[in-house]
Amino acid sequence: MEIWINPACSKCRSALSLLDAEGADYTVRRYLEDVPGEGEIRAVLERLGLEPWEITRTQEAAAKELGLKEWPRDAAARDRWIAALAAHPELIQRPIITADDGTAVVARSEDAVREALARDGRS
């Protein structure tokens, strides 16, 4: 499994601690440094079963500068949202865990981390 993190994020650090406590085999991706492209973001959205606006941190300065709260949230605007996430990775909700079964979760709670572990064949 892979976990997209920002090391400054407390929820990311908590998720890593839980993964370590459970002995999980995972790869860390510091997505602010190793920025996902639009194709990767599309793939993760598909795995999450979410739309790009559902994983966007709308309180970030970049979101306010772009006026994201005013953007339409529909199929026609989907590519625009994905492009914004690729151009401004700090807007991507974190942490995101991709499990080996092809699914993913936004792991902001202990339950979500445990869900990813279960999907990965643990717990």
Automatic annotation (TrEMBL):
SUPFAM superfamilies: Thioredoxin-like. Signal peptide: none annotated. The keyword Oxidoreductase applies. InterPro entries: Arsenate_reductase (IPR006659), Arsenate_reductase-like (IPR006660), Thioredoxin-like_sf (IPR036249). It comes from the Bacteria. Keywords: Oxidoreductase. The keyword Secreted does not apply. Belongs to the ArsC family. This is Arsenate reductase family protein. It comes from Streptomyces fragilis. The lineage of its organism: Bacteria, Bacillati, Actinomycetota, Actinomycetes, Kitasatosporales.
